Predict the structure.
Amino acid sequence: MPDRLAPRLLSGADRKILRFVYWYWWRLIGRPSSLLQYETGLVRGTSTFGGELLKVYMEDQLRPTPPWRYRNRVFGVDWN
């Protein structure tokens, strides 16, 4: 993964620095959920992932996509 972020035009030392930054960010700092999703409008125990998707997309558009498999997940129960 870091090699995709570090084109071959960079020197070996620069690629090492980018690999370290990638490793440090994702392993030590992690991915705070507040950066990944907007939770203000979600109701714990009630909001479903599919219900939220349907607010933005039509079901015909969603049905063939991978996220639609998780449509029954409930916020605060089995979704975050």
Q: What stands out?
A: The chain has five helices and no strands. The first helix runs from residue 2 to 5. Residues 2-30 form one domain. The chain has a mean pLDDT of 77.
